[in-house]
Amino acid sequence: MSDVEQGVQAQETELGQEAELEQPTVRDGGVQGELDATEPTQEPEELGAPSLSAAIEALLLLADEPMSVVSLAQATRQTVDDVDVTVRALAVEYDEAVRGFELREIAGGWRYYTRAECSPLVERFVLDGQQARLTQASLETLAVIAYRQPVTRGRVSAVRGVNVDGVIRTLVARGLIEEAGHEQESQAILYRTTSTFLERLGIASLEDLPPLAEHLPDLADLEDVLDSVAFGD
C-alpha cells in the first residue's frame, strides 16, 4: 500500500471515530427523553399574593358567587389539585379556629358564609329593613317552582290559585329562577331555580330540600288534579 493510500485510510478512520463521538446516546425514552431530562424545570408563575391561601381568600372575598376549584386554579395559575387541597385546608382551619365565618362548598363552588353560631347577631343586623325581602307571594311561588321544576307559569298559577306573572318577573330579575326551555305540548315556557337560589338557602343541590310529604299529606291528590288540567301561558 502506497503512502498516499495509507494517509487516506487514516483520515477516514479518524472521521468515523469523530462521527461516533458526536452521535447522541439512545437510552430509555430515546433521544428526546435525554433532551427533556436536561431541560430546566419551569418556575411557577407569580401569584401576585403572599401565598396560594392568601390568593384564594382574596378571590373568594371578591367573587359575588361561588367559585369552583377549576376557576380558582385558572385565576391563580396553579394546578387544580393544589387549589383543591388548599381550599379544603382553609375550610378546616376556619372551623378549628371557630371564626365568625366559614368556607362552604355550595352549588359546585366555594363561598364564604357567616357561621351559624353567629346567626343571632346577624339577624339583629339585617332586621333593620335595609335588606329588601321577598313578599309572601314571591316565597310561595318560589317554593312551587323549587319542588315542581321545571314548571310552567300556568301550572304555578293553578297551584297558588292566583296570577303569578308579576311574581315570576320579580324572581327572574333577582336571579332566583330562569327559563328552562318549553313544554313539549303547549310550548309554554318552563322555569327552574338557579344556582343563586341554592346559595341563598345554603344547600349544595335540590336533593337537600326538605321533603314536602309531611307538610302536604294530600300531595298525591293534588298531582292528580294538576295533571288533569291543560296549562298554557
TrEMBL record:
SUPFAM superfamilies: Winged helix' DNA-binding domain. It comes from freshwater metagenome. Keywords: Cell cycle, Cell division, Chromosome partition, Cytoplasm. Signal peptide: none annotated. This is Unannotated protein. The keyword Cytoplasm applies. One of its GO terms (biological process) is cell division. PANTHER family: SEGREGATION AND CONDENSATION PROTEIN B. The keyword Cell division applies. Residues 1-47 are annotated as: Disordered. Pfam families: SMC_ScpB. InterPro entries: ScpB_csome_segregation, WH-like_DNA-bd_sf, WH_DNA-bd_sf.
